[in-house]
Structures are given as C-alpha cells and as structure tokens.
Amino acid sequence: MRLQKYILIQYLHININSLFVKNHIKLDHINSTSDYILSLKGTEMFTDGLVVSANFQTRGRGQMNSSWESEDGKNLILSFLLDLKLDIKHQFLISQYTSLAIYDFLNKYIKNIKIKWPNDILINGKKISGILINNITKKNTINFSVIGIGININQKKFTVNNATSLSSLTNNAFDLSLLEKELFTCFNYRFKNLKDLINIDKEYLSKLFLFKKLVKYKDLNGFFHGYIDGVDSLGRLIIVKEDEKKYYYQLKELNFPNY
Ligand code: BTN
Question: Is 35 helix (H, G, I), strand (E, B) or coil?
C-alpha cells in the first residue's frame, strides 16, 4: 500500500463501546475510501469505529460495479468500519440503519426524502446519496462491515441527470466539516440499536419510495404492474402483482420505472 498523507483524529468517549465513530482518517485524494479501509485489514488501524473520509476519489465505487462520481471537495465521501459479529441473516439491518441515519441527517435541511430500496436516498425522485456495503464474513457471521457513503452537498452540476445535491435544492452553500459531524451524530444515534437487532421495518417502510403505489416495473419476464408491499428479513423486496400474488426480488432482478 502506497503511504498516504492523512490527518488522524481520535475521539475520546466516556463509554466508548456505545459510540460509533472512534478514529477518523481524513485524506485528500484516494482511489476509494472503502478500498482504503479494506487495504488496512491486518493492521492495528483496522478496528471498530474507524472512519475514512476524502475530498476526492479517483476510483469511487458504486453499487453493481458502477462508479461514484463526486467533484473535488464538494461533497461528503466517507466509509465507516464496524466490527459487528452479526449473523448474516440480519445483514439487511445494516442497509436499513444506514439509510435511516442518512435520512435523519438530511431531514434537518430538506423535506420529501425517500429511500429507494434497498438504500438509495432520493429527493423529488433524484438521487442525493448512495450507500455501498462491503461485508467481511466468516461462515454465517458478518465480522466486519465497511459502509461507504456518498452524499451530494455543494456540487451543482452532474454528468447524470437523475442526481441532485443539498446545494442544488436549497441554493445554499454548506460547511462540509460541520455536516460531517452532524452525520456522525446521526450514525451514533441509529447504530446504538444494531447490536440488539432492533427491528426498524416499520420506519424504513414509511419512508420507502413508491411504497404501496401501483406502478409499472420490469423484471426478467418483462413489464408488469404491481406495488411494493414490504421487505423480508433477507432484504428482498416484496411486490404484489396484478394476479395478487407476492413476488420476492433481489437487487439485480427488478427495474424501477424511470422518474
Ligand atoms: C451507489 O452506487 O449508490 C453507492 C455509492 C457509494 C459511494 C461511496 S463514496 C464513499 C465510498 N467509497 C466508494 O468507493 N464508494 C462509497
């Protein structure tokens, strides 16, 4: 690993186990904050509560092998490392808790926030934040989870037309380091319940994009009308089709309508 210039901040908490962010590495440029954390595996830095943030990523990764573009110094780009020891059957909780932490964070500044299953954050149908989760598992246990988050804050121009930012929506400029601290507070608040496996389906569904709305989707068999009825414990999306039967979808198996 190439040695990278960084600032390390250590947060001293009274009850360290109940809190989420413990060490913070701030980088200027990096390939990907998530890949950086993964490359630390086996070193003493690879411990619960590590956060790596950067001004710019040269190879930011998105879901399903896509890339994540973000203008230099304009947005929040960070990854969290959690030592979870979580049974793999509960893995969707990580997505739900992360989505709701970002929801809480944005809700102070903007309304009409929706979570597009499984964990995109939309405002007025446009994407403001994406989440990429890399789990390190052994047998049926998730030992570590690297939660990568991009939140568009001050960027105003995008190469894709379904993206937005806090600044585009409010016409204000935001202080990134202040927002970063607020995001940490939201994570601390949400994630303190994860070890107890507190179910948050009800809250997650109440904020879900197109929940119970009859619209046109596409799956491997073509277009159909249906509505989202829920998610199961594995995180599969439950859709009721016109034949009134329930169908269960994984991420790659379903296309949403274009809004
Ligand atoms: C998505 O496709 O919606 C997920 C995007 C995740 C982007 C973040 S930015 C910080 C972290 N590092 C990465 O390379 N990706 C995630």
Answer: helix
- The secondary structure of 106-154 as a DSSP string is HHTT-S-EEEETTTEEEETTEEEEEEEEEEEEETTEEEEEEEEEEE--S
Token pair for 25: 């590495």
What average pLDDT does the structure give for the chain? 93
124 Cβ partners below 8 Å, 6+ apart?
A: 112, 164, 169
- What is the dihedral angle through the alpha carbons of 57, 135, 186, 229, rounded to the nearest 10 degrees? 110
Q: Of the candidates 132, 8, 125, 118, which has an alpha carbon nearest to the alpha carbon of residue 63?
A: 132
Q: Is the CB of 60 under 6 A from ligand 1?
A: yes
Residues 145, 160, 258, CA angle at the centre, nearest 5°? 85
Q: pLDDT tens-digit profile of 105-131?
A: 999 999 999 999 999 999 999 999 999
Q: Which two tokens stand for residue 55?
A: 């001004």
* CB-based contacts of 162, cutoff 8 Å, min separation 6: 125, 126, 127
Ligand 1 neighbourhood includes 33 CB (under 6 angstroms): yes
- Nearest-atom number in ligand 1 for the CA of 129 is 3
**Contact status, residue 139 vs residue 103, Cβ threshold 8 Å:** no
Dihedral sign computed on CA atoms, order 81, 22, 103, 93: positive
Residue from 38, 58, 149 whose mutation best tests the ligand 1 pocket (most atoms within 8 A of CB) = 149
> Is the Cβ atom of 131 under 6 angstroms away from ligand 1?
yes
Rounded Cα gap, residues 22 and 5, in angstroms: 19
pTM: 0.93
